[in-house]
Write a structure and sequence with these properties.
Layout lengths: L1 H9 L15 H4 L11 H4 L5 H16 L6 E5 L5 H10 L2 E6 L2 H14 L9 E3 L12 E7 L8 H11 E14 L5 H11 L8 H11 L2 E4 L3 H25 L2 E9 L3
Parallel strand pairs: 1-2, 1-4, 2-3, 4-5
Antiparallel strand pairs: 5-7, 6-7
């Protein structure tokens, strides 16, 4: 499944914009490849503010986690680095990224250089699988993952790796889609098709116990032109579909923070 996910994100949909691996989501939230959820109408109703909405949601998670300037932090599922750059600029922490798509990492570095050629903020990244992180035990003060864990089939392994590489007292922040008990098999199959996830989305009531087991201290709960037209239509349909599921309570977006206790 890792190969399928890597292929999905490595397809150069946004290549002409210089952000290979970003997909068409780039044209919605720019370098934040995650939903622009916000309680502010001026953000939700203005597409030009959607990146702001996505960034505010991520930074709320980081704020609650208490990430500090002296912390060494890991970003699992970096995308093209929008979340990571905002985290560095806000907290001044040292951030390392791990991501399955090599093309996304190339775009991440390019965008970091473009933002600040003299002193690019987000360059320390590795091409790695969340189920086998290439870091020593107890390396990081914090680990977070934005809109990426729903791709992971073996959650036990990924959560175990997060726990292994966190320092005692370190915190894990998860920001992601989950399905609820109202989601039918048909809905799960539709999610699998639209979002390249092996199981649709994970069920929150199953993920939470897995996190609790590792972290007893849980804080909260074709032709390029033709392809582009088809991909844009699929993205539009997928976004509308997710809005429908969200409004009906059959899918939720949650942020979870856990702390490693020895």
């Amino acid at each position: 499944m890792s190969q399928e996910i890597r292929k999905y994100y490595d397809y150069p949909v946004a290549r002409e914009a210089g952000v290979s691996g970003a997909g068409l989501v780039w044209f919605l939230t720019r370098d934040h490849l995650s939903p622009p959820y916000s309680n502010r109408d001026e953000v939700v109703l203005n597409a030009n503010q959607w990146r702001t909405g996505a960034s505010e949601r991520v930074m709320n998670l980081i704020s609650v986690m208490g990430v500090k300037a002296e912390d060494l932090t890991l970003d699992i599922g970096t995308g093209i680095g929008g979340s990571g750059r905002d985290v560095i600029n806000t907290t001044q922490c040292t951030l390392v990224g791990a991501n399955l798509s090599f093309n996304q990492l190339l775009s991440l570095r390019s965008l970091s250089l473009l933002a600040d050629p003299e002193n690019p903020t987000y360059m320390k990244v590795v091409n790695a699988n969340a189920g086998s992180l290439p870091f020593r035990d107890g390396t990081f003060d914090n680990i977070f993952s934005i809109n990426a864990f729903y791709h992971i089939t073996n959650l036990d392994q990924a959560i175990s790796e997060v726990y292994r590489t966190l320092k005692p007292g370190g915190k894990f922040g998860l920001d992601d889609w989950f399905i609820t008990g109202r989601a039918s098999t048909r809905i799960i199959n539709n999610l699998r098709f639209n979002w390249s996830s092996p199981q649709g989305f994970h069920r929150y009531t199953q993920v939470k116990p897995q996190i609790l087991e590792a972290f007893p201290q849980l804080y909260r709960d074709y032709n390029d032109e033709v392809y582009a037209i088809q991909a844009a239509q699929q993205l539009r349909d997928a976004v509308l579909y997710m809005g429908k599921l969200y409004r009906s309570g059959r899918a939720v977006y949650r942020q979870v923070i856990a702390q490693k206790v020895i």
